[in-house]
Design goal:
Blueprint lengths: L11 H4 E3 H8 L3 H11 L9 H4 L9 E3 H7 L3 H21 L3 H9 L7 H7 L3 H6 L1 H12 L9 H20 L3 E6 L4 E7 L2 E7 L13 H25 L7 E2 L1 H5 L7 E2 L1
Antiparallel strand pairs: 1-2, 3-4, 4-5, 6-7
């Protein structure tokens, strides 16, 4: 007599996992889970049979591949997020106790992390990174024109302006621009970068109205990864044509709003 198989031990219920079960497995909050999924490139999926995938339940929920959630268990960034959460709790406690000395010490030792390993993991080759650059360029050029207020980080905006200027300088230097189109949304550009067509939109240089209903926390997570990605791409593009990276900036011309003219090769 063969071994009796346990119900829901294989098939769709084993392939997929609900978001609530994933949170319990990873022992993190919903905001950190969303952040990790965005940075790792993990997105919800739709199983063919939701009832089987949810172990017989018909409750509406979000599904992920179980193997993707398993990979998150060994992600080094999870420990960094936990350290950052502990740091915020300690900082809040020190400020509440009006212990400014301890708060300043904690702020000086704020946990730091990088996303370099995620870029290398998601894009093993440079060609794959170029094929996925359209969204990154649109996001970076959008935030480069945004005002620094509210939940929008001023350092991120300055970084976006620098990265966008460096990329545009490469396009100009290599004569890679192929098409330009003016629309109500902004200026559409298309460039041929090492045989790969890249298309992105640049908003007009008007005063930007920041809508309140937009979740800038989610957009900020995407932007954080795209800034790292564009930094890698810019470095590779500059070194491929024997230019030093990052290019030097003439501070006097930059203060006079020279734009791309302030970059020195």
């Amino acid at each position: 007599m063969g071994k009796i198989k346990k119900k829901f031990s294989q098939g769709a219920s084993k392939t997929y996992i609900t978001r609530n079960r994933a949170l319990k497995k990873l022992q993190i909050g919903l905001s950190d889970f969303r952040r990790l999924c965005i940075l790792k490139g993990i997105y919800p999926v739709e199983p063919r049979n939701r009832k089987k995938a949810n172990k017989g339940s018909t409750t509406l929920t979000t599904f992920y591949y179980a193997k993707d959630i398993q990979l998150l268990l060994s992600e080094p960034l999870m420990n960094k997020l936990r350290e950052h959460k502990i740091f915020l709790r300690r900082l809040k406690h020190a400020i509440g106790k009006q212990d400014l000395t301890k708060a300043k010490t904690l702020e000086n030792n704020r946990p730091q992390y990088t996303l370099d390993h995620l870029v290398i993991e998601r894009y093993p080759t440079f060609a794959e990174a170029l094929r996925d650059m359209d969204d990154a360029l649109c996001m970076v050029f959008l935030f480069a024109t945004m005002p620094a207020k509210g939940s929008i980080n001023s350092k991120a905006i300055e970084d976006c302006r620098r990265l966008s200027s460096e990329f545009m300088h490469y396009v100009i230097h290599t004569h890679s621009l192929r098409k330009v189109f003016l629309s109500i949304k902004g200026i559409y550009y298309q460039a041929d970068v090492q045989g790969q067509p890249l298309t992105w939109v640049v908003p007009y240089q008007f005063n930007q109205h920041v809508p309140q209903e937009v979740d800038f926390k989610v957009m900020g997570t995407f932007l954080e990864f795209y800034r790292t990605l564009l930094g890698f791409v810019n470095y590779r593009l500059y070194t491929s044509i024997n230019l030093s990276y990052p290019p030097k900036i003439d501070q006097r011309m930059d203060d006079s709003a020279a734009g791309l003219g302030s970059l020195q090769i």
